[in-house]
Amino acid sequence: MKMKFVSVLELLVVLLCCTDVVLSDWRCGNEYGNCQFTSGTCSGSYVSGLCYGSTNRRCCVPAFNDGRCTSRRGTCQSTRLACGGGSYVSGLCGGPSDRRCCVSRTGTSASCNDVTIVSRAQWGARRPRSTSRMRTPVSLVFIHHTDGRACSDLASCKRVMQGVQNYHMDDPKRNYSDIGYSFLVGGDGKIYEGRGWDRQGAHTRNYNSRAVAISFMGDFMSQSPTSSALRAAQNLIACGVRQGKVSGNYKLYGHRQARGAGTTCPGNRLYSIIKRWNRYTAGTAP
Ligand SMILES: *[C@@H]1O[C@H](CO)[C@@H](O)[C@H](O)[C@H]1NC(C)=O
Ligand SMILES: [Zn+2]
């Protein structure tokens, strides 16, 4: 009798514990990943916030070939998940067949048909060492410049993108898991995908979990970005608002307005331009 009682209790404990584990790890399952300790090898990339337990336990998500979905500005996900305000299109995502491309129903017109986004695959990005999910919509948008080389066409902008990514990942003082910015802007008037809307970046210390960063490729201390680059950045922000990635009452700042930033970024000339943009907010960012 006593033995039986103990084992019922144990069964209860196991049930409680594992319901919890299953519920939490289920989010990783939706990404077709496995929860594992980050000391293990992951042939894709680690995503945090999807697994139960220790913060060292993360979701290893396989690397799928999603380029065709991304270039339609969709998101590859399990059809078990709701495709809010949109519909699933098959044949655009890698991985299992129930992994499909969720494309906004309001279509590219309500989202981004006035912006050309060059996907990571298109510019030849390296795989991130790990990623963190971003909570959206964000309420802050920071403008940066790379303070490096400018570019004027797809070929030169790809080279600059690869250079910035290598610098952010390989410079021991930075050692970021990926290129730091959310998006970059080329002199060719195209937007280059960095971490995108849904992954937390490394760009504006103290603000990274609450902000997206749009960085102009080049040094804009005394020169202006091209008019097509300026238009592209503004269209991108408007598109982010329409897609629910950026809050409708967001505030726009230059990197120099971050608390304790100690930087002239995004350069005097570019900073004077963004002061005239929608929702630019004077003073130190909250
Ligand atoms: C870079 O960061 C990783 C952890 O993300 C760490 O293991 C490694 O030692 C760091 N490298 C340098 C040069 O600091
Ligand atoms: Zn900056």
Task: Please provide a written account of the structure.
- There is one protein chain.
- The chain is an alpha/beta fold and 286 residues long.
- It folds into three domains: 13-61, no CATH class; 67-104; 117-274, 3-Layer(aba) Sandwich (Lysozyme-like).
- 28% of the residues lie in helices and 21% in strands.
- The protein contains seven helices and 13 strands.
- It has helices at 2-29, 67-70, 107-110, 120-123, 154-170, 227-242, 268-274; strands spanning 34-37, 45-48, 57-61, 75-78, 86-89, 99-104, 117-118, 130-132, 138-145, 183-185, 191-193, 211-216, 246-254.
- The strands form three sheets. Strands 7-11-10-12-9-13 form a six-stranded mixed beta sheet. A four-stranded mixed beta sheet has the order 1-3-2-8, with helices on one face. A three-stranded antiparallel beta sheet has the order 4-6-5.
- The longest helix has 28 residues, at 2-29.
- The protein is globular, with a radius of gyration of 21 Å.
- The relative contact order is 0.12.
- The protein binds 2-acetamido-2-deoxy-beta-D-glucopyranose and zinc ion.
- Zinc ion binds next to loops.
- Belongs to the N-acetylmuramoyl-L-alanine amidase 2 family.
- Residues 1-24 form the signal peptide.
CATH architecture of the largest domain: 3-Layer(aba) Sandwich
SSE sequence, one letter per element: HEEEHEEEHEHEEHEEEHEH
Radius of gyration: 21 Å
Q: Describe the biggest sheet?
A: 6 strands, mixed
CATH class division of the largest domain: Alpha Beta
Keywords: Immunity, Signal
Pfam family, one: Amidase_2
GO molecular function, one term: N-acetylmuramoyl-L-alanine amidase activity
Family: Belongs to the N-acetylmuramoyl-L-alanine amidase 2 family.
